[in-house]
Description:
This protein is α+β, with helices and mostly antiparallel strands. It has helices at residues 6-17, 21-40, 87-94, 97-109, and strands spanning 45-47, 51-57, 61-65, 68-75, 79-85.
Amino acid sequence: MANLTKRDLVMQISKSTGITQQEVFEVIQQTLDGITEALATGRDVELRNFGVFEVRLTKSRVGRNPNKPENDVVIPARATVKFKSGKIMRQRVLLRTDELRGQGNAVATA
């Protein structure tokens, strides 16, 4: 199954609402820009029934190059975006558990 792209969303919304693809694209892009700006300025983004985006600081850690394991490299702490799914999304995605388990078994036996 192919990934859902921004273009796919634009086409779906345009078809179901009758709004031009250009207008839908602009609204989606402004929404994504608003989310990015909020996160970049330290604000969490909560979209009810979808989820919450928040910026978290990862801990610094020691990494190793598998080709040169004798060399340790310090990976510094950095800000990353964490997503916590909302209740409705979590429930809908949970329905795929058995389907994904079946795929995992098929790959393991292949």
